[in-house]
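Researcher: Structure for this, please.
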Amino acid sequence: MAGSSLLALLDDITTMLDDVSVMSQLAAKKTAGVLGDDLALNAQQVTGIAAKRELPVVWAVARGSFINKLMLVPAALLISAFLPWLITPLLMLGGAFLCFEGFEKIWHKLHADHAHDQAVHTAMQDPQTDLVALEQEKIKGAVRTDFILSAEIIVIALGVVAEAALTQRILVLSLIAVLMTIGVYGLVALIVKMDDIGLWLMQRQGNHLLSQSTRKLGWGLVQIVPYLMRLLSILGTAAMFLVGGGIIVHGIHPLHTVVEQFASWAWLINAAVGVLAGAVCFGLIYIVKLIIEKN
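Model: Predicted structure, token format:
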């Protein structure tokens, strides 16, 4: 009798794990687009960091991302259970924040204090400088951005398992949170160390074809890294408008209906809404700052 009960329990566990695996795969597919944006944004955050500090910064942001998801998964489960109507407004606020950050980056680029930027860059190259203190603002900004993207990933995954049992929802969301974090920051670490990998390959000894090809590959990696980082910086800013604008569009039903009718132009509409939302948020915050300063 006890043996039969144990076998039945094991069968139930196996079935549940199979269901969790299937739902996790489906959730991973649905969040793949956000994963690409997350990768571009986070690779952008470590541009300009001294080479020896790149991995510590990536690790610091990854740790912050784990903490974000540690808060977001239980919060998403609680909100979906008791306040499901609150998910969309919260996501829209997050989307507006992403648009604001994207517009702020462009504004800073157009009105950059180049002397200040050069001073910061020089300080980061100085071995006597407290690099950790200089990096805190960059890390905090990356973790803030990750919070919004992580929230969207969790909510999308939650939509896949909304009708599943509580245990399955917990397992799927936890699995997605862990895998997405490891995937994103593992790739970010690889990207930022590509130049070091290239230098290591260039030092390969030998005159045979394999060694020569390896050295050429290393040289190619070293040459392409600056352009790749610049491209990721541009894609990261564009992703802020695309993701943020997409969240806002999805939350406004009439606008979402219009976008569905022009599906092939959805990315352009999302980007336009994102830029407009970012400009409005930036303008409002700028006006509030001026009022506060005058008072």
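Researcher: Any notable elements?
Model: The mean pLDDT is 77. Residues 209-251 form the longest helix (43 residues).
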